[in-house]
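INPUT
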Amino acid sequence: MSYNPWVWFAAFLTLCTFSFLWRDNPFYKFAEHLFVGVSVGYTISILYHNSFMPRVWEPIVTNHQYYVLLPTLLGLLAFAIFFKKISWLIRYPIAFIMGSTCGISIPRSFEGYIFKHTQSTITAISPGLPPFLLISNIIMVIGVITTLLYFYFSLEHKGVMGKVANVGIWYIMLAFGASFGYTVMARVSLLIGRLQFLLHDWLGVIK
Amino acid sequence: MNIWEKMMDIDRRWIYLLVGICVLIPLIRPVGLPTFTTPYTQALFDYIDKIPPDGSAILISFDFDPATAPELLPMAQAILRHCFFKDINVLCLGLYPTYIGMIDMALSNVKDDYEAKSGEDFVFLPYVPGVTAVMLSIGEDIKRTFGRDYYGVPLDSLPMMRHIRNYDDIALVLSISGTQLPREWAVLVGTTYHVRVGVGTTAVSAAEFYTFLQTGQFVGMLGGLKGAAEYENLIHAKGYTKKDTRKVASMGMDAQSFVHMLMIVLIVIGNIAYFNIRKKKAR
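OUTPUT
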């Protein structure tokens, strides 16, 4: 069993959180509020030491790099939202962020998301592939086409179109099933992690 | 009310109890069910294994916080062990404030086993705001982007950073994340700077990353606790770990399998109950 008081405190908080499985209670609320408070405090501390001091305070005050004032002022405009009369000023930093992000993202997104994936789907069925891979790729290409057709709404889903769209639904359902299976695996992993902590780090009953 | 109707009305806390038992028993009394290595884990392992010692570095982006640490921390630690054993230089990066603590934890758990030193074997980069801007800025100059390491030492003075300037000197960017950030790494950095990108992700996110593996935008992938366990087994089999190293992820795999079996049984029973009740109502 651990003699570290912080491990005991962490174990107490874990048990407080697990108590929600029974029903909502003050212990759970305590753990939840503490988590939110600590997260915010930790984030502010990191931002202050790693961002504000080396990127704003030191350049302006110590190194006299006054051009840093410009982005600093632009950033400070984000706080204008708290003052009704000048709240419209927040549009400037938002416009800057939106403009720069779109400029950076749009061309690369076309390249990385659309062109690469379309190219990869087109070239998936090519001669010389091992039989199993070829069959897998044919299934994949059928899936892409039928799912895309399911989301094509300018033709009524009747007759051949209806049947093809129906195949698309099957693919979507299978994708949901795979995602759900993975989700179960992920949630169980979190429980395993916490129980390993309780049994190993706290109680010391497992290696 | 017949047995099926009672079953559909069962208190969810009984399910919690069953899940708890299925996790606890195999953790206390491990069964040792086998875990097989998937091709994507093997591909990532092989890629890292071929990086020459003290040559190009690996940039590990710790894109996770404590909420997903049980899955992702064992992965990060296994990769750090691999790199430190092979003398591959590692750059550790966190793109959000809460991710920084994860780097600290992973390094603390691993570095002493390999006598890895800050500035020589790894560099812990500090938090710098502006996720996309940071990703792209590394492509220009790492030293200008960060200035100092997490401990406040100027990057210029670190021996490891003498031959590392930007993505040209990085053999692999590895994003360990339960978020969309691996996609950003692949699309923004992989596409622009032609650097290879790998991913270690939570099981929830794994399904959506398979398309990026198929396009070749990811070198390989570790998916969830299983991916971490596979990687642990690979480095253990190669003798890259110490004898007393805890295989955290592998130890959880028995429990994982037990709960999956329970879930399958519950889904089958639930469906039988549903169809029986529907049949009864139709009468």
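end of record. The first strand of chain B starts at residue 57 and ends at 63.
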